[in-house]
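It would be a great kindness if you could assist me with a short task in structural biology. The full record is reproduced below for your convenience:
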Amino acid sequence: MTLWATFMTALNSLSANRLRAFLALLGIIIGVSAVISLMSIGRGSQATITDRIQNLGTNLLSISPQPDEVLTLEDAFSLIDPIHTPSVKAVAPQISTSGTLIAGKERRRTQIIGTTPEALSVRSFTMKSGTFISVPHVTDSQEVIVLGSQVATDLFGDRDSVGEYIRINSKRYTIIGILAPEGGTSFGSVDRQAMVPITTAYYRILGDKTVHGEIPVQSINVEAHNHTLMEKASEEIQVLLRLRHKISDEDDFVILNLSDVIETLEETTQTIVIFLGIIAGISLLVAGIGIMNIMLVSVTERTREIGIRKAMGATKQDILFQFVTESVLLSFVGGIIGIVFGIGISQLINGMNLGNQMLRTVISYDIALLALLVSSAIGLFFGIYPAIRASALHPIDALRYE
């Protein structure tokens, strides 16, 4: 029997039992759709996390104090030293708190960041309108504020709010700038933050001092001159801070390299993506069992047909190949339909809000191809036993079957 004849015979056999063939297809469709949609969600989450960290800068170090320890504004300014820290390009210390911003009848509770002018370049911010915090603003502890794009929209709608006033803790702040949107939707997103001079945040909002009268900071963002100087900059900072803090044993601060964070997160999220794929793949396994069950029923129903074909000269290999072809055809067609549905579902949920997070999906066509190959392999694997059983039937016994 030729390959085309075998294919047409398998197609006619499946067409004769459309409902049963559809139910077998449905399992594969659901399985492949689940694999593609879950993997796209996993890869979308991976891309979102990586993008957010990379937006901070690939040559960025973050310094934070150990628990019960303190870093000060003076520590941050000391890191700009061409002699002790020549690898450091810019430093942007920050403190953060939360507060309620009031504009007329509108009010929004958001995260308030106290920082310095260097944050604009260190954190790679872009201004939508107005200006960022300047040196005089920090020196004089001026009551000025820069709003994230979403905060500005929540309080003022679509109009440009530069020059408008808002109130924080009964004090009036002048809006000097609006940051360009970055696409974040969480509370910690730049779009949902407001920024004030670091001295303003300390004296006007927090109001505490260390025992030495210095301004404590929660973190110090340090930009190296380029990516290749990250390790050297980290070593220089460590030496300088140890000298300033008179440390002889363990450091009272932590230096975090964001490149290392990106690498670690990519490894972690890749594990999550694989785990999601395995969970979705279980549905393909269940679908394969369903195909084997249907093929076994088909062998039983077509016992006389098998006997007649063998009596007319069909070989054991012909029968075997026919039933394997039916099984693979089912899984292959189901895989193609499943890919279409999976891509459609991924595109449908892309951009959907889930809680306070925007769901992002990344469709990977290598995963779609892999899902199709796996579904076909499952059809082959689970179709072999029914095919062997069919081909092993004795013609006389098959013809006697009622």
Summary: The mean pLDDT is 80. The first strand starts at residue 60 and ends at 65.
